[in-house]
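Question: Now follow the chain.
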Amino acid sequence: MFIPINRYLLVEQEQQQEENQSAILIPEAVARMSDFSLVKLLAVAPDCEKFNGEVGQTLVVNTKMIKYYE
């Protein structure tokens, strides 16, 4: 399991619902990602003094700030 350090947060991206079905088909490579995502907070690095979120909360984050690890 990834243990967050250096002011990182461990989050899990929540599944987003399709809002509107378009009549125009757009390839997935061209489709625009949303600017913000809903994530569930799983763990907080110990050196995050100013962060006041609690594990289990749902947060809104900038999608470009999410790093994916396998």
